[in-house]
Amino acid sequence: MSQLRLNPLNGRWVTVATERATRPADFAPRRLPVETGPSRPCPFCPGNEEATPPALETYGRDGSWRVRVVPNLYPAFSGAGEMEVIRIGPVFVQAPANGIHEVLVLTPKHDVGWAELDDMDAGLVMAAVRDRLEDHGRDSNVRYTQTIVNHGREAGASLEHPHGQLLGIPFVPDELHAELDGFRRFAAADGNRLGADLEPTQTDDCLLCRMVEVEREAGHRLVVDDQRVTVVCPFWAGSPYEMLVVPTDHEGQLARAMPRDLVAVGRALRDALARLQALVGDVAYNVVFHTAPHHEDALFHWHVHVVPRLSSVAGFEQGTGVLINIVAPEDAAAQLRSTTHLP
């Protein structure tokens, strides 16, 4: 029987319809070709650095780079200044898309994705993300930075070379507002759980701290778990093999995370993606980082969403916003744990 599950992060319902499930092998990878060809050298490969604007950051040893951050040649957000909303009629409102748009080149190797990075390189990528978020946070007009990695054409990648993007924008998007509200709702409700003689702590009030605690006790939705980070197929997953990566230490701002936590998250994300690849093949996916907005001290816990592109968003999902997941998270986690992989 299908089941409704509430996502406490954003307050939305999802439907788990296990009777519609298929085996992992039935999810054929749908990797459409991305732009390539001898007439257009890859701008992210070593030796082609002149094809991009000068690097904002480079990480590496012995004069060779391992991770590189450059301005996006075709930015969705650019320019300085405050967000000025202009009304041009009774129903039309617009504003300049000021902000920052950067490309994060994950590796000099053209055919190596995050799933194949070694521990050091995975840590370097996370260090680059932290450094760029810290830099964006110095701009009073950038209120939030969205970090993403799109793998495969179905996930939005237009170039094959593994890369991510950092978009500093002049407003806090609705998805983050929804998650901030989710943390506030949980903190308000969770106060009833504590004894009258106990003082609540920040981690007692944190939705994801509590989720990690109960998921470690239950065990059946865990994919990767060590002292510093937990990867789960969340109870409320809206798509097959969706995962949530949560550092153990409570911190709202990724830019303030300890180096050991950044390294652990990079490694755990690598292991989770390697397990996904071993189970369903070279599937397209999105990696989405969520951190507290810049210039705010909100109750939040930074985390990473992994969303494989194994199912379509059809009319019901578009019309209602209610996702249908045909693989129960408990089954997905068990299948991912059972895979053997060599990161």
In what order do the strands lie side by side in the largest sheet? 3-4-7-9-8-13-14-12-11-10
The percent range for strand residues is 15-25%
Which term fits the overall shape?
Answer: globular
Which regions contain 5 or more consecutive residues with pLDDT less than 50?
194-200
The biggest beta sheet is recorded as: 10 strands, antiparallel
Distance between the termini: 37 Å
Number of helices: 7
Rounded mean pLDDT is 90
For this structure, what is the CATH homologous superfamily?
Answer: HIT-like
| CATH-defined fold name | HIT family, subunit A
Q: How many domains comprise the coordinates?
A: 1
For the record, the CATH architecture stands as: 2-Layer Sandwich
Give the fraction of residues assigned to helices: 25-40%
